[in-house]
């Protein structure tokens, strides 16, 4: 367990003292810098309670004692040290001053702050001018503890009138710091500022510092308004030479008061008139950009502001940086506020649009990209407002914008790019930026996708021909030209992403299919690319085109990419072949993946790699066998054509009949292969968490296949005994429901997982939920299922499926809600814990949704048919039809495309958490024990390992059973139980309790559990809490606590359930020894 800073405080204090006493040159400064870094770390931690201090063996108050010792030593170093030491101490507290509200220098954490002030005051009283200045700046850094000190206030105000520049500037800095925290002091300082700014004897450097101090007057809205009015008056009436600096300060102070912000915006607009200097126009734009970044401008929009900003875009006297600032402000406005923009006349709008279009063709890269970004934002805003916009005459704008961007890409890929005067990375960066803009447009306007793809296809073909011609003239290999290769790769990545967007919008047409085929053909015939690159783009592009798994398309797809794989193998490029096998698994090309890993197994040296490749080979063999069930004849023809019979000797060992018994046999063989793959990974592990995701994912896949085998077995059993078949289906439905929950836990346990992997697992969970629903309701007859507990279980299955389809709008959800009426419940109960959901409707999702719709509608028709019919003859006849429907559903289900999530190939150690428990009863020492009949009171610490995001809270559940027979390894079944309880608690309790945490305990002689909440510190790695676990019913013995956690990662409700990296906490219930008198 990582120690808190307070546990190191004594040693840090000793180290600082040793460093300050050392006679070695520079040793004192080194010690001060080191302790400064440690104080910065300490400031990120909250004030710890007595329970936390007890965990680390600290006496209450010990942390504050040594913190104050360190601060006093630094104050003494400032008092007695030379200039370099004093500067070093000042730098330490300048950093610490960033944490005024919660750092170690807050008033409530420094009980002897008066002593600190006294020691530094001595430097001010007895030192020279430079010493006084350093002391004043230090008081500014100590604003939280110095703001109420009369001595400090007097020193600062006295030094404001100093004739020494360095002292006067230091006093203004200190006064500004105090003004941020103390309103009464700020009022006095503001009056002093008026005198300083208007006094003819005040030096210009001091006046400049005073102007900047106006920005500090934000302690209250009234103070900010008064400071703004005074600053503006000084600026207008006294014609200050520091107008530019005052404009910045006024903008900063205006941002802190809504009372004057509108006035400041109008004030800034006035400086962008023709009479203003270039410098003032540039500064006014800079200030407006500052206000836009604060999110203030969107509430103060008017036609004058927008037209003024448009004029600044092509203002010839402004520098390009200022023109870009105007474009950035407009982008911010149109990105967030188009529906609320003021209406302007059509002629004015056309004029403004022509300005932006002109800027979009600027020779300056940043201006050109910003202008195009602005046009895109305006177009996207039109979509948001349904085409109604204050910018009239823009009905054709989206099309024109896309054409303008594509024209820029065409210019970028003209012949000079082959002999560029610009760096390669700059050319590629511009190309990628332009592509991203086109993708934004296609996402909002899918009807523009075909035009964009066709234009890119034509551009790529001509560019590739041009590159190869140029290489031939120079007698070079074409793909050795880096800029040409990078640009074409950018274009192909654009095509891939564009197809994904169109696929999600159901806008992939036969014309787009044709474009993709031409692009793939072009990449195959070009020497710009290696075999691996050809493979990657072939598999990625084909995977979107051949989504329906038509036999001809499927065979052609597999044949093309298999040929590239064989070429890589023959060239000995095994690492490239491994990467292609990985991509094939992620796209569901199991024949290619199986061939690749079988060939690679004998070309590795280390045992770990050998086990890993054997595992992949067994896994891909299992999945290719399942895929072959859908295409038995085509698969055999593919194997024969490519002469790779030895690779699939086990997959195609004879003619395959498509009967249920053969399906069951093949699925069982695949199940055995995946179990063998898991054993290979277990043999390769060095710790329990090595290949953790991979083993868990394979185990889930094996359980699903085993469930399918069981269903096939029931379908081929004696169907005359319907009751036995129904009981079997009910049992398998419960197993599948548990697997669905396990998929949910898998998806939320790996926070570093990419979005596509999460979508893949969510889809697999949905497919499993469909099976659970079908097996539950295939033989469901309302008059035979009247048990309330059973009805509730059925309701949960329906609710689970509805929740997963929440963001998919089709008749399936409606049918599911209608289905509830057949089990006698209302549809008002759909409020159980969150599940992984389907958020998009790409080709693979639609494939799954089609099966779901077929299953739900088919079973619903059966339920409607059976309504009011209760005779045994009807039940017997209807049962056979229903089992046939289940068989048809299962055959469709098994043809669903199965892919491995990309995260499967992330083999580094996973992120997770460790839980440490200590007995709250300190009389027991380090022993975690409790007397029989008592509750176990615990002090808890959670340690997050490699968290990729910053967490604020972590909810946990701790559970223990009276049984001493607990598994030694992590049990996913038990983890699912805990996760379900925890998610239900979090979803119900997050808004119902304002307490720090709520304890909920199980009772009786079964499992007991308790919920706790950890507040994670600012480092994002550690949190503390307490827990009371009711183990009063436990007999004497040793027990192990299990735990599970979850945390809200985003405001939208995304959860992370960290993998428990320590397997459990052992505690004992025992009778204390009898102490003899």
How would you describe the overall organization of this protein?
It comes from Kingdonia uniflora. Pfam families: INTS7_C_plants, INTS7_HB, INTS7_N. Keywords: Cytoplasm, Nucleus. Belongs to the Integrator subunit 7 family. Strand 5 (1008-1016) and strand 6 form a beta hairpin. Strands 1, 2, 3, 4, 5, 6, 7, 8, 9 and 10 form a 10-stranded mixed beta sheet that branches. Among the domains are: 717-909, no CATH class; 911-1069, Sandwich (Immunoglobulin-like), CATH 2.60.40. The protein is 61% helix and 6% strand. The model is unreliable at 387-394, 545-549, 652-657, 826-831 and 991-1004 (pLDDT under 50). Helix 10 (165-179) packs antiparallel against helix 11 (183-198), helix 10 (165-179) runs parallel beside helix 12 (204-213) and helix 23 (449-474) runs antiparallel to helix 24. The longest helix has 28 residues, at 722-749. With 1077 residues, the chain is α+β, with helices and mostly antiparallel strands. It is built from 40 helices and 10 strands.
Give structural attributes.
ten-stranded mixed β-sheet; Immunoglobulin-like; single chain; 40 helices; alpha+beta; globular; 1077 residues
